[in-house]
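During the first year of the project, the team set up a workflow for recording each protein of interest as an amino acid sequence followed immediately by a discrete structure-token representation. This format lets reviewers and collaborators read both layers of information side by side without switching files. As required by the reporting guidelines, we include two representative entries from the current panel. The first entry is reproduced here exactly as it appears in our internal archive.
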Amino acid sequence: MFTAEKWMLAFDCHIVADNISSFQSALGMLFSVYYCFGTEYQKRAPATLDFLQRCFLTVKPEKGSKLKTRCGTHSKVLSLTKSISDFEWEL
């Protein structure tokens, strides 16, 4: 992953984009695909994807979520982002 020079994005077993030049662009495109097609996050990694969305892409919707939880955000993600925020204030 750290030495790759090109990336590609597949969605629903179809290549959506290939020859992507950076990991950051590929990650941004991944989240764009989730929102454009209105799909929920995969069952195996919803907390990870929610964390990446909120902390690295700074997409923090006030309403709605790609997770299947009551509050809309995974409790582990809320706890981790709060800890990171508290740490940043101490610096």
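The second entry, processed by the same pipeline in the following quarter, appears below.
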Amino acid sequence: MSALSRLNPRERLLVLGVLPVVAVLALIWYVWLPLQDHRRALTERIADYRLVEASARAAAARPGTQRPELSQDRAPLAARVTRSAEAAGLLLRRLEPDGGLLRVTIDEAAFDTVLLWISDLETDEAVGIAAIEAERRIEPGVVSLRLTLEEME
């Protein structure tokens, strides 16, 4: 209190009046706003998980979710993937055959469309996912993907 008592009454009133305002602004800036940003990010993640869950349930409820019978006269893996992507409305940026695998790159696509396409690949085309990398884009619900696909046996 000695520092405050050395101030004249006008300075003391100014310090005591500004100090609570600064404290409130600091709480808002360093506590409230970061909490709100974190809450918003978690809400978006929950919405993404609910979308995945709904897509998985819709795929499981569709008739014909059994694996197709494998036949010897199937089209090559790249042709089936390309045909299926076109039917789903997806633009494949790159297809790279790698032995029995096929690496596929999709730049920007709606996440729910991609999930349905992957489900259709597995159920209709007998194509399995060996690896997948997804990156979220700035637009909500849009992702870029790198997939490694393989024949299902």
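For the second entry, the following points were noted during internal review. DSSP finds four helices and four strands in the chain. The helical segments are 2-5, 9-61, 77-88, 111-124. Both points are flagged for discussion at the upcoming steering committee meeting.
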